[in-house]
Specification:
Blueprint lengths: L8 H14 L3 H12 L4 H8 L5 H41 L22 H15 L3 E2 L5 E3 H4 L28 E3 L4 H14 L4 E10 L11 E11 L4 H16 L5 E8 L2 E10 L16 E10 L1 H7 L7 E8 H9 L6 H4 L2 H4 L4
Parallel strand pairs: 1-4
Antiparallel strand pairs: 2-3, 4-5, 5-9, 6-7, 7-8, 8-9
The structure holds 3,4-dihydroxyphenylalanine.
The site of 3,4-dihydroxyphenylalanine has 12 residues, from strand 8 and strand 9.
């Protein structure tokens, strides 16, 4: 510690700034801080000499010293920030895991996992119910020929019943010979053909899948929708077996307070045919707008296999009998979850979809 005079102040500031700039680590900075800006600094030493001065001189000298110290302190603070940053880089580099080519990504939010959609999950639940009842699950093509979708099902060309199914035709082969299936019933034909070819009758199967119709979507219809078809071909099968399967399924899937009933109807491939209705799931049978005050909602069609269909696939109707049924999977989801408008199923609004996670 030397002796200084006020004439030295500018030179002392310059020296101090040079010393600050020369500091190479935080440890060094801490070691020299007191000499540069603390009690042992030349400015602190000069401060003590001020008492001997005249008041005016003292005031002026005091102000200069304060300004000098502030300049040095600012330089020290800036140097500290810079050295801290340098040392952090050194520390991070030293601590970094050497993982070769592995890129470690920090994920700030958990990735949202998707879930099975309502229609596929409804399809699986329906399959489960039928599998538990002894049915197998089979699959069929979505593009069919006119023969599988219509003719083999006893719907010849120009038959008025074709009006029940508005068809999308595929531009392949002769006009109107290849089409997007309008129902899952053609899969019955494939299954019966295979069973005849392989000698594997009887059949107890359900066949879920996508169907297509030239319908304008509304609250209860979609142009692309899903059905599940049921087919039993065995010896001595009666209408009572059909009614029993429908009733057992309805209670198992919708709950024990939902019943089924069959009402006479017409389908070309079954005789007799019926419409299959269940207790309205909205009002539980009391009557409401959805069920037009009847307490019942139509789910699908069913009936005993028409002998003309057995003929088409080469099954002897004197030995075998059977029943079939078909209904909408989307309609089932709608009924089970009380979805007012079926178009919600294809809108892809996550607020709707998340409810079924
Ligand atoms: N395929 C019919 C439709 O889409 C539903 C149907 C009715 C299927 C009666 C059947 C049945 O198997 O026996 O309108």
């Amino acid at each position: 510690m030397g002796t200084y005079s006020m004439q030295d102040v500018d030179a002392l500031v310059a020296d101090s700034l040079a010393s600050v700039a020369a500091l190479t680590s935080l440890d060094e900075l801490r070691a020299h801080e007191a000499e540069l800006d603390g009690k042992r600094s030349p400015f602190a030493v000069l401060q003590k000499t001020l008492g001997a001065l005249e008041p005016d001189e003292r005031r002026e000298a005091g102000a200069r010293l304060q300004a000098a110290r502030a300049t040095v302190r600012e330089a020290l603070d800036a140097r500290r920030v810079a050295l801290e940053a340098d040392e952090r880089v050194v520390r991070l580099t030293r601590d970094r895991l050497d993982l070769g080519d592995v890129v470690v990504t920090s994920v700030s939010a958990p990735l949202a996992a998707g879930h099975v959609g309502l229609v596929p999950s409804t399809q699986r639940a329906l399959e489960d119910v039928f599998v538990a009842m002894g049915f197998t699950v089979a699959d069929g093509p979505e593009v069919e020929t006119d023969w599988y979708n219509f003719e083999a099902l006893n719907i010849p060309p120009a038959h008025p019943a074709r009006g029940m199914w508005d068809t999308f035709y595929v531009e392949l082969g002769d006009p109107e010979t290849v089409l997007m299936r309008t129902h899952t019933s053609p899969t019955q034909i494939h299954l019966m053909e295979e069973a005849v070819a392989n000698g594997t009758l009887p059949i107890h199967s359900v066949m879920p899948g996508r169907c297509f119709r030239r319908d304008t979507p509304d609250a209860r219809h979609l142009a692309t929708f899903h059905q599940i078809e049921g087919l039993v071909v065995d010896r001595g099968i009666s209408f009572a077996d059909l009614a029993g399967v429908i009733e057992t399924f309805t209670r198992a899937y919708f709950g024990s307070d939902i019943a089924s009933r069959l009402r006479p109807a017409y389908f070309p491939f079954t005789e007799p045919s019926a419409e299959f209705e269940i207790t309205c799931t909205i009002c539980r049978g009391d009557g409401c707008r959805t069920c037009s005050q009847t307490g019942w909602i139509e789910l699908g069609g069913c009936g005993m296999i028409d002998p003309a269909v057995f003929d088409a696939v080469g099954i002897d109707a004197r030995e075998w009998s059977g029943f079939a049924f078909g209904f909408g999977i989307d309609r089932c989801a709608q009924m089970k979850h009380q979805i007012a408008d079926m178009r919600a199923l294809i809108d892809n609004d996550v607020r709707f979809l998340r409810q079924f996670a």
